[in-house]
User: Fold these one by one.
Assistant:
Number 1:
Amino acid sequence: MSRKTSLITALGIAMFLPACGEKSEAEKADEERVGLRDEKRKKAIEFYKSVAEQYPDDPKAADARQKAAALEVMASKK
Amino acid sequence: MKAQIVPRAARLVLKSGRLALAAVVLLGAIAAAPVLRAQAPPGPPVPSGPDALEYDVAERLYNTKKFKEASVAFEKFLAKYKMLSPKSLDAKFRLAASQLQEGLYDEAIRHLKELIANPKIDQSARETAQILVAKGLTLKALKAPAETAPQKDAQKKIMAEGIKEYDDFFKAFPKSRDMDSAQFLRATLLMQSENYDESIKGFAVVARTPTSPYAWEALMWIGKTFFIQGNAFLQAKDGKEPSAADVTKALGLFDKAEPSLTQAYQKSNDIALMNEAVFFVGQMQLTRSQHVTNIEDEAQKTKQAGLLRASLEAFRAVRSIEEVVEAQTAKITQLEQQKELVPAGTPDYQALRARYDRLIGYEDEKRDAFKGGQDQYLSARLAIARIFLFLHKTDEARTLMRNLLTRPELFEKDKDSHATISALLCLTYAEQKNAAKALETYQEFRKDFKGNTSGDNLALLVANLLVEKGDADQAEKIVAEGQADYKDWRFTTEAMQILTATALKKGDYVKALDLCTKLLATNPKPEIEVQTLAVKGAVEQAQGREKGETKLYDDALATFTKLRTKFPNSPQAEDAWFAICQILGGRDPKKAITELTAFLARFGGKDGTSPNTKTNVPQAQYLLGSAFAAANQTDKAVEAWKKVYEAYPDSDPAPGAYFKIFDVLNERKDFAAGLKLMEEFVAKYPKHENVYYAYNNMAEFLFSGTLDPKKGPDIETGSRKLLDYVEYETANNLPHRRGDGSLLKIAGNWQKELPKPIYLSLNDAQKQAWQKSVDGVIATVERMLKDYPESEKIAEALERLVTVQNVKRKAQKTDAAQVEAYFQKLAADYGKTPLVKAKIDVALASFLYENDAKRAFKVMDDAFRAVPQSPTVKDSEGVERIAATFTPSDFDRYLGGLFDAKRYDDMTKNVARIRQEYPLNDRDDLAKVSRNILDAQAVALFWEAKLLQEQGKTTEAGAKFAGLKTKFPKSSKALEADYGVILGEFEQAGQVKEDYVQRLSKIVNTQTGKSFELQARALFLIGRIQEAKKDFDSAIETYAKIQDRYASVPKIASAGLWKAAELSEKQARAEAGYPVKTKKERHDAAEARAADLKAAKAAEKPQDTKPAETKSPDEKPAEQKPAPSKPAAAAAPQK
């Protein structure tokens, strides 16, 4: 284990270091997307609420209220 | 022309009247002169020798009034028998008498003087001879020509000799029976010599001799002499009108004349004499009426009417010549009877019979004179006609004249009166502006009396009338006739001026100038030259103004300068100076300042000789301001303009000066001072025609917020200003009403002030402002319905009311049912006419349209049917035109409804109607045409195209749509058409063309009217296109933007929000096909888009580049924001 182990360890360290220390582009993008989706969720809530509040006479007002509520629940489950 | 009824005719009558009467007295007396053997016993003479027989033959010739033959016979007798026959003295006497009758005065007087010197004749024969010498000289004087000054002097000399002979007679024969006739004739000579006082004394002697047959005649002559003397004071002397002092003297003499004339008329019982006296009374009253001063005064007017009435009465009393002659005949018969009744054998037998003979002869001669002399009846009728004309009783005058013209015998001896009546007849038509009849009677006059002075003004008057009627060519012909008919025509200048004015009216400056040049080339009199130069300069100036050519202004300057140099003291020189100032004002401000300053120094505060100077001085002061302004000396300009309204507040340019200063203050951004000035204007000229502009300027300041940028627009105070104007206008019932426009402006400003965010999100202060704005619009529109129900702008105002009612509904301050009830009440309260009711109903339909298009159409359809015809209105110039009934949007909605109902014929009718109500001519500059007209025309074209499309005529429809796009690119219908095309293609093919977003962006960024529905729809479609292109982030952003920009279009705004929410949700839920893009992905996509765009741009032709006014959808929203602070537009009215 001396030289070989050290080498393997060294290789392993060298091999695993990036994985442990820096995330890949794709991972970053996925992470960003998660955040973006949450932002989208918040936006959707905002838009639905606007429909429900500002246009109470609109036939979709009730739906909008429900959808906003559902999206809010979706956030709390996360 | 000054209205003068009689003077010239009166003078003619007077002159001929006094000569005729004097001649009558003389000839009558001479014809009845006894022979020298007056004392011989009665009975037929018994011829005893040849001399006696020859004498008897000659005597018979004399007695039968064959004076020429008698003269020859007596001359032969005297040549044969010298003075040796017992009949020689009588023959010499008869020869002298015959020669007097023949007008051989010098020979007659020579014979008479020889007889007087002959010791053989007795005292009574000498007396007769002596009186005949005096009468001979009288006749000679009266028959002598007196046209020229030397002739007049010669006549005066003869008259002086005659007077001396009468004086000698009085001394030699103080107890003569002929004393009265001698006195009468002497007085006549004195009057003729203008020795009026002595003349009146002489007539008075006769009038006081009751036994004299001339007593009444003399009394009347006292009156006539006073009248003639007075009339002499009233004649123009050296071309000048009589002075006030002379008029007073004349009227005083008339007062003295009146009793004698009245007495002669009332008491003489002699028809001929009464006729004469009453004729002169008529003349005198008429002359008096023409000298009543201060005629505007009611009392003076009544006085003049009274005099004219008296004159008319007197003239009406003048009898016909036949009546006078008949009365004379009766008188002569009576005298003959009295002569026969003289008892024979009495010592006075011969003498009395001789006196009767003389009287009969006198009356007989008078009768002949009446028969052959001027007809006073005709003269009186002429005077009556003139009085009628003076009183503008034109029809009465004409009836009288037409009646006279049916009696040609009246004019046989008096062609001048015939000509006068013929001319007056034409005048009556000219006065009544009956060009055709005036022309006809002018031509009749010209046919019979061409060149007669009584009608020398006809050509001018008729030409003037023809010019007024627009027949310039005929007018020119008539003027040419006037010039041909009258040598040195006194109206030449006026005629040329008429022709020049005609040419100017026709815009034929060249001809006008040509006329002036021709006139100047004739070496005219100074007064004509100065006038013509003035006209020429004015024409050149006008031409210069029209064409803007420097040379023409140079010509005008040269003409005016020549006028000033040549006629420096003329009134026209003052006008020319002012004109020079005007011209320089537009060309050379510095020179203009010098000239204007000099002009004002000379005439400021003083009157010049020209009547125009008084009005030119304030104009010059105003021009001085303009010249200073042009020379960039605005402080001095303001000072000069200020002086206009301070020194000449009532002058024409004074109100304009206020607006000039207002412009300066506006430019200097001294808005507070501008407002103050306008307030001052309103206070000073509350009734001025431009007071509207003052109110409007004040309101604009307040509406725009320029007065206090921090505070911003002050709609409330601005509205109050305009409402003040509305109050003023309605209270004064101004003919040109602008209040409806003011109210519409107020409503528009209140509407602009409505806070944009939705009501629920407003804070308390904003809610208060919201309420104020809503109330402001509602109150203003209702006021308009109340005070201006006939206004064409009602429909537009109601459109604002609909908007505000919608706003109220969205704020949950009312609901649809309440709004409907409100409009129904409005219709009940103000819909007094079918038109106003229809407009209110259409407004209700507009409100209903959003939620219930079907019902809205039904209401609209009923309203449109209620007013099937477009109303007409008169514009400010009184020209009638078709008025707009409904707004272009109303028509659009209605046409849409008709289209859906497939009522194509009704559509065609309404397309024609909208084009009539909002007319557009091919020559109209589209940049200057009102928004409403452009919209209306676009609506008409759009629905026309839709109809063609429906009929399968796709090519024609395509051409119309293309025309719509090119002709009315900013109209909502053109954009709507394009929107429809994109939507159709997109929905049908599901494909996205490259230019869709660009075209839709143009729609979004073009403000088309008060509604933003189309823009909202276009933005929504952009969202859909972005969505189709899977550009979800952009799509969400676009959908959400609709709510921000077009809150007034709630359906689409909420649909946009819904779509934004849905897309966001799909992305949030990571639904398949709805990825979220990372920052990098977005960046890459943006770069790719930019590259595409660049490539596309490179491929584009230059002319296909995006229009400059087109903005990207990311730019600022197009919905109207509250007006930014900006200086009020200078709204100085054009002078």
Number 2:
Amino acid sequence: MSRRSRTFMTLLALTAALALPGSAWGHAVLLHTVPSPSGVVNRPPAQVSLTYSEAVEHRFAIVSVTDADGTPRASAPARRSATDPDTLVVPLEQLARGWYLVYWWVISVDGHPVRGAFTFAVGPNPGPAPQFVIPSISETAATPRPLIARWTVFLSLMAAVGLYVLRMLIARPLVRRVQGTELRAVSICFAVTSAIALIATPVYVFLATSEFAQRSVRDIGALVPLIRVSAFGRGYLDLELCLTLFAAAAAISIWLDRPERPQRSIAGLLSVTGALTAAAAALVVPGLAGHAAQVTPRGASVFLDWLHLSAGAVWVGGLVGLLVLWRSLPSARRVAGLVVCVPRFSSVAFVSVLALIGSGIGASILHFPTLASLWQTSYGKALLVKVGLLLAAMGLAAVNRVRTKLRLLAARDRPHLGPPAAVLLRRLVTGEVALVAAAVFGAAVLSSLAPPAKALAEVGNASGRVGPGPVTSVFNRNGYRLELHVNPNRAAVPNSFTIGLSRNGQAVHGADVTVTITMLDMEMGAQAYHLAETRPGLYRHSAPALVMVGHWGITFEIQPPGRQPFTVLLVDHATG
Amino acid sequence: MTRNHRTARADVRLRLLAALLALGAGAAALVVVILLARDSI
């Protein structure tokens, strides 16, 4: 990459980092409901309203209201409130006395489905809360069809940008230095990968929208208008636009380029600048439409995502380009051609890999609340697989750098070293391409999973892991004996949270005890309840706080009278 | 001015026009991304 291009890229990145403000933003979180969760209303409500932390699209939302028998009680689908875009409203039939389950499923702005459930009752005297069955709807965007489409988009986008960089900035001197060679094959490969990216992007958006909207892919008439409704869909349609502009600018610059001349013309320089700008812009979009834009600080997160993708693009596209060059060069000039290109690419790839590692580590620090969430969450495990594949590819790259490159350079004086070095290069580069392509698949999985909840940062301090089933745990803290109960420890039903507090065998009276309940499997708002002292030393509160099946952080905060407060954190697994 | 000169000048103009188109495409992509950032952030 030339000094001019490097300066331009740096300026662009800095502008993007400064232009993007930083503040907290997670997935859509349910803030408020009417009726309230576990609330008992004396008159049947005409509707259920759910207020979220951000506007959610009602055409992607599923809200079911069912009675104890599982019979739907909503009289119409969810619609957006006329007065508040953040609120969904579900009209209800005339409800009889009893308990009802509200189950909701919405799409966040970054395209991730988020779900939850709560119960309410119509009274008076609705009777005991029944065990509801939580509807089974996939909460992940990592289903095979959109995942493969997403991988194709990522890989073809990265390969197209990398091939362009190789063609215009790395392999260009080849034509001048080795007579009888040309870069036509690399240009054709660039055109093919660009075409694949241009086709795969709308296909991916379409498949993902059909998954999010829970509609068949054959329902084209209904799906197409929905695409631009979500921020995710708009983002990827903008990627399509950027890709088109990049492909056009790149085609013009390749047409204008005269690689046999050492100096580029002004027209050539202008067109390369335009194409690189469009490429840089296209590589920003996946971050803006995905997790990166949802992590604080957002400017730094989007920049790291862009750097990661750009570095990966230069690496994987360059590797594909080297293979194409290997095949396309006449066998008599193959070694001479590789002697020109490989050392230049090797230096660029080395810097790219460093940028890839640095930006990956930086993004991980922003995304992962704890080190343990690397192996405790699906997101972390997907990242570990991706890192493993990249390390294997880097191992092959290191062999290429310290062995193959040197042998190719030595072949200028000792020609017999050339052919075996070229064969070794082809084998290693093929392996690298396969490993990096697999790592990009890992990235596609990663960006389809919900990142770990920030609440996981506290799990490292957990006093114990409990559940499923009723919980009874005894702990000794600060000279106090605590007997903790969660019963029946099931989702979407009232659970009693009880703590027996004693010191030296004596019940401790008058303590201030609260329980804070946080969903660990996804970002949701925490709920806090004050535990009432039902008899000396026994504090209790009952609430359907475990609103869905999954892992919950249950934190008891105990403030004994006249003593230092302390906390006990349980990691609980609640089943339905 | 000979015919060859005129052809050469037309060729230069065409190449410059194409380069400006490419530059415009890059600038347009940048504007798209800035608008997307304003929309989604």
